[in-house]
Amino acid sequence: MSWWTEKRYRMIQNNLRDIDAGMDLDAYIKTLKEFQADVCMVGCGGITAFYPTQLQCQKTSPYMKDNFFGSLLQKCHENQIRVIARFDFSKTHSDFLQAHPEWYSKSINGKPVLYHDTAATCVNGDYQQEYSLKILEEVIREYPVDGVFFNMFGYQTRDYSGNYVGICQCDSCRRRFRDYSGHELPVEENESSPVFQEYKKFKSFTTQELLKKIYRHVKNLNPEVAVCTYSSHYVDLVRNESNSAVDRPYPFFTMASENNSGCIQGTFEDKYSSNCVINAVDIFYRFMGVSPYLNELRLWGDLAAGGNLDWCIIGGFETYPDKANYEGVKRVFAFHKKYESYFNSLKSCAEVLLVWPMDVVPQAEKEYPGIFKMLKEAHIQFDVLDGREMEILEKKARDYSVIILPAVETLPDSTADALKKSGAVLVGTGLALKEDKESLKRLFGISLGQKLEKVRGSYMLTEPKEVFCHFADRDWVYLDKEYYYMKPEPENRNYMPLILASMYGPPERCFGHTVTEQSCVSVREGKSIYFPWMPGSLYAAQGYEDHKNLFLDVIRTDALPKERLRISAPPCVEVITGCCGDGEYLVQFLNYSGFNGTTFYKPLPVEAEILFSGMDVEKVQLLKASGKQRLVFDEKVKVSIKGLYEAVLIRENKESV
Q1: What does the CA dihedral 261, 31, 62, 50 come to, rounded to 10 degrees?
Q2: Helix 364-377 with 256-267: angle, nearest 10 deg
Q3: What b-and-e string marks burial along 445-479, b requiring 16 or more CB atoms within 10 Å of the CB?
Q4: Can you tell me whether residue 363 is helix, strand or coil?
Q5: Are residues 380 and 439 part of one domain?
Q6: Which contiguous run of DSSP H or E holds residue 87?
Q7: Count of domains in the chain?
Q8: Nearest one of 533, 523, 519, 518 to 555, comparing CA atoms
Q9: Can you name the residues that pair with 529 across neighbouring β-strands?
Q10: Is the N or C terminus of the chain more exposed, i.e. has fewer CB atoms within 10 Å?
């Protein structure tokens, strides 16, 4: 068993600048221990070598006096802190450009991509293909590193300022793409071009092939070195980020940590999430942190979803000008250390699976986060699975009672077979399988016809009322975005008749709506539910609870199983429930009540209840920084959530387990 599989770690990443090669290492170690970090990630090689390299393909920091990385590694290991060495092979010092032009990317105008004194290298050039391996070999042979991480792995079409440089036009790319596809390199990113579609496959293939080569090389040198980057293949630790950007459009996706960590934990058995909580407000503003409440919530999200704790700043601790988030990080890290035995064994017990369509299509950009938000606000427990991993979906399908496919465009035949045989109720939203007519008919018993052209001004009739229990006093709910007419099979039950738009203009002319025989939901009892419109997108973009409640009323009536632990809490409270031992359950509450849509304030105190449905409960304890506190309970227990996070440990009577 390798070190990263034994327990969930607490890591701090210090993105080192050249000038940090002279930092006080004893003070650095002391601060890591104050944070209770047991892993650190620091710069090692690539753009700058932070050790005395013997290779002629990288430059050492001019500020380094001795062997900075070697000394840091030794001191960390003496203090039981593991070290992941950070590499960036996406660029080199521009001094190498004249002697080795074949290493580098060329912009759309045929020139090297320069930024300050660095030049961008190409995935297909000799530097990334060969010299990166030499750098890794030098480090791993000389230093007992615990892991390696690669920054900016893959193809880049923009520089650090966001300037578009285009598809790389270097000779290596031209030659390799011609060999791969028989075509010349495209010069523009045109989604309607078959050649560009081939180029996208080429990028994926060549990136994965290089990562496979690097992974095998590292493991041949030392199989106990963890490999980490922004990929889910040929790695041990999958890197994602919870980050911010000042120009990013709203609405703000608050639960990125839970989503990113949960997706890795829900998809893979042999990989672990290292979702990095970026302290900075933006890449342009690395020296100021986000709100302390947002920063801490992101870390609680990593922890609650079963991932590793991972936090990042630029430079060293003492020189960083914004220390406002230090105490919040220490608080989360200390809590994790105190109760890490529960987090190391935490496993989901969800019966609902949400498939994340990672190859983003326009329909999925809002549909998936909208459905995610609906389920979270309703406190329905669910796992997330990477929608690119169809073979894994096939294997896991039988483990769930409900599988939701928001805007998933197509399915391989084998995946459709597995889903049909799984026994799970399938839920399609956001025009799922619109481009896969055979799977749509086979799994949902419908065919889609024409698109409703005049969707704006149309409504949905909330009938039958025994299904739509939220709508005793509201008969019509507006329809927007996209809707497609559908032809269900005779066995299907159909809800919510479509109401066509009437005349529009002054009030005197606003009449003439037509209730049609078309429906907005089609149900095959015990098998599937289909929404031929965009409930998730509408909720994500426009925020009306009606669209959420329409979705929830249907799946609660026709899909969701009875939960053993039912949660009653405000929608602003996220709940994550998992099994953490034999007959032991951990119920975690994240309090988002301080978020007003743009700003994170101190959260308000809120109340929640955990209801035990047919459970013989022996003990209920609140996990606090000061220790465990027993709670009084009967068929339910009340929980006061006064801060950002609370955790409740529930133990069943062992005789009843």
Answers
A1: -50
A2: 90
A3: bbebeeebeebebbbbbbeeeebbebbeeeeebbb
A4: coil
A5: yes
A6: strand 82-88
A7: 2
A8: 523
A9: 427, 523
A10: N
What 3 state SS string does 6-21 have? HCCCEEEEEECCHHHH
Spatial distance between the Cα atoms of 507 and 231, rounded to a whole number of angstroms: 56
Give residue-wise pLDDT tens across range 423-436.
999 999 999 999 99
Whether 174 shows a pLDDT value over 80: the answer reads yes
Asked if 209 and 123 touch (Cβ cutoff 8 Å), the reply is no
Q: Based on the fold, state whether residues 589 and 537 are members of the same structural domain.
A: no
Cα-based distances in Å from 219 to 153, 225, 239, 587, 592: 19, 7, 19, 38, 42
Is residue 483 domain-resident?
A: yes
Residue 326 to residues 293, 318, 332, Cα–Cα distance (Å)? 12, 11, 10
Stated as kind and residue range, the H or E segment containing 31 is helix 25-35
Helix axes 292-304, 256-267, angle to 10 degrees: 20
Residues 569 and 550 in one domain: no
Q: Are residues 581 and 627 in the same domain?
A: yes
636 plus 545 within the same structural domain: no
Task: Identify the domain boundary among 542, 558, 574.
Answer: 558
Helix locations, 489-581, DSSP H = 535-542, 545-558
Asked if residue 27 is part of any domain, the answer here is no
By C-alpha distance, which of 594, 606, 636, 619 is closest to 293? 594
pLDDT digits (tens, 9 = 90+) for 548-568: 999 999 999 999 998 889 999
Residue 168, number of CB atoms within 10 A of its CB: 26
Q: What is the domain range of residue 520? A: 352-558
In a domain, 239, yes or no: no
Q: Name the nearest CA neighbour of 641 among 300, 310, 347, 366.
A: 300
The backbone torsions φ and ψ at residue 358, rounded to the nearest 5 degrees and listed phi first, read -70, -30
Contact status, residue 57 vs residue 48, Cβ threshold 8 Å = no
- What is this structure's pTM? 0.95
**Looking at the predicted structure, is the pLDDT value of residue 358 above 90?**
no
Pairing outcome for strands 237-242 and 272-278: parallel
If asked whether residues 463 and 371 sit together in one domain, one would say yes
Whether the Cβ atoms of residue 408 and residue 435 lie closer than 8 Å to each other: no
Residues 576 and 434 in one domain: no
Q: What is the pLDDT of residues 179-214, one digit of tens each?
A: 999 999 999 999 999 999 999 999 999 999 999 999
Token pair, residue 487, equals 């032809």
Q: Please check whether residues 611 and 643 belong to one and the same domain.
A: yes
Q: Is residue 635 part of a domain?
A: yes
Q: Which parts of 305-361 fold into alpha helices (H)? A: 326-338, 340-344
**The pLDDT of residue 654:** 74
Boundary residue ending a domain (558, 577, 607): 558
